Amino acid sequence: MTNDLDTLATALYVRTDDLLKEAPDLAPWRPRVGIAPKLTDAELVTLAVMQALLGFTSEARWMRHAHQHLGHLFRYLPRQPGYNKRLRRSATMITTMIRMLAVDTTLWSDDVWVVDSTPVECGRSKDTTRRSDLAGWAQYGYCASHSRYFWGLRLHLVCTLGGLPIGFALTGAKADERQTLLGILAADPTLAGDRPGQTLIGDKHYYGKDFERALTEAGIDLLRPARKGETPRPGAHLFKPLRQTIESINQTFKGQLDLERHGGHTPAGVAVRVLQRILALTAAIWHNDKTDAPVLRSLTAYDH
């Protein structure tokens, strides 16, 4: 098996189609009597991943490109409005596919995780902050890594050192990172419950006695730098080289998968576009893992 976009698309379609046949309830609900969609759910997932990997941030441009160049892969291709509606209705299915593919990799059992959050900007003008459908969810926040304020959301990620997404959440820019992490773990108790002694690497914002006690009770050992006034913490000499991993993963989302150029204008639109990029990274890692690629998080074989 080779590493190119057509091969990944074919493998992803087959895997998704098999999973949906085994568990048809994962697909969006449709009435039993009616017109069956010409584009199957497995084809929709494949098309969404290809869009993210090829860097098309405009759905209209993407569908024009697909109609001209991807006819050999898809029996039917919708127009942009139909593609957009199908994609927004498929958020739950995409979330499930992220987990299904992640579990089917050798990285899933890694005993070290990294956690961080990264901005997802949604607008810049004052009119946008007042009139946007995202107002109330999107907020003003500050990104210390880039020394800038932004209006939008935050993507909270728990990943392996190899870059595989384990858990994630999309929140307002001011949401507490610690409570969001605990919420990710509480939403799926098997994440930590099935692997006692898991190590979690975070930055200095992941602190607090109650917070650390909750992680300990979940069987997770927290590794973070000491805050000002604290005594040195165990494992500090290991922190810096490993801590850069999450920054690199965030840069993959922003630099190669155009996370902040999502183009969403509604909560459903932004959410599914973020999920689309998480799925694209997971699918690439899954395929690289199956083909024994030397670098599992590399996307360069699929971006052209």
Explain the overall architecture.
This protein is 46% helix and 15% strand. By secondary structure, the protein is an alpha/beta fold. The protein has a domain at 109-261: Ribonuclease H-like superfamily/Ribonuclease H (Nucleotidyltransferase, domain 5, 2-Layer Sandwich). The longest helix has 24 residues, at 267-290. The model has no long low-confidence stretch (mean pLDDT 92).
User: What oligomeric state do these chains adopt?
Assistant: single chain
Number of strands: 6
Mind telling me which CATH architecture of one domain this is? 2-Layer Sandwich
**Main sheet makeup:** 6 strands, mixed
Radius of gyration, CA atoms, in whole angstroms: 20 Å
Low-confidence stretches: none
Principal-axis shape equals: globular
- Average pLDDT taken over every residue: 92
CATH superfamily of one domain: Ribonuclease H-like superfamily/Ribonuclease H
Question: Top keywords for this entry?
Answer:
single chain; 304 residues; alpha/beta; Nucleotidyltransferase, domain 5; six-stranded mixed beta sheet; globular
List the SSEs and their pairings:
Elements: H1 5-22, H2 41-54, H3 59-69, H4 80-89, H5 91-103, E1 112-123, H6 126-131, E2 139-143, E3 148-160, E4 165-172, H7 177-187, H8 190-193, E5 198-201, H9 209-217, E6 220-223, H10 236-256, H11 267-290
Parallel strand pairs: 1-5, 5-6
Antiparallel strand pairs: 1-3, 2-3, 3-4
